[in-house]
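Sharing a chain and its predicted structure for anyone who wants a worked example. Both blocks are below, sequence first, tokens second.
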Amino acid sequence: MPARATAADRPVGTGNPLQGKRVLITGGAGGVGRAVAARMIAGGARVLIADRGELDLRRVAEEVGGGDSDAIDTVTADLSSGPGLGRVFERVDAWLGGIDILVACAGVGSGPLMEMSEPDWRYVIESNLASYVACTQAAIERMRSENNREGMVILIGSISVHIKAVGESVYNASKGGVASFAETLRKELIPHSIRLTLIEPGAIGSAMQPFSPEERARLVEQYELLPPEEVADAILFAATRGPGVDVVTLRIEPLVQKIV
């Protein structure tokens, strides 16, 4: 087991656990990804955001990076495929020079199983589950290769696996897999001083919802959808705990969460 990290191991004078951290955020162009990137950069981290839409990524980088090309970079990739994964971690190595924190929040929604074609439901599984496993493995390989550095993996699941609402069977299959993966892998990583947190949000006021931006804003105001910033704050809470403190699972939902 590597040497146990202590608060004294943090950079002297920063007083900030994120200072100098190298962070990869998948789904970085979405509402939660954008909010997490902004908070990580404000804390002194260097952030690489990955997503499928190049223009969306550029817009996020400009908005949250403030023109600082040393603070944020982007990589366009579809993580449901092997080539997409390879492109992301080539950029991790070339621009970040390694990785300290992985925040996996890429994902797609789905409909009822019998209303989906086989390619469609397979794409949901590949995007929401397989990409998480693949990114986590690639991140851990890099974390373990560096001695005396703490690593952290934060996976975004969903409370849908507890609600089991009608019409969400495929989505729940993917997010249920993420939950089981996270809870088991966490134990395997303890000897390597790598922490793993599962965040389980309720309904989020993001583009994944089948509503217009105006309707999403109204539902947020009525406490029926979570503001993406609140989910980002939950992620930041997990990412900034002191050495030896493991936030295993964090569930956050709007006050009026849909349960059917």
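Comments welcome. The CA atoms of residues 18 and 43 lie 5 Å apart.
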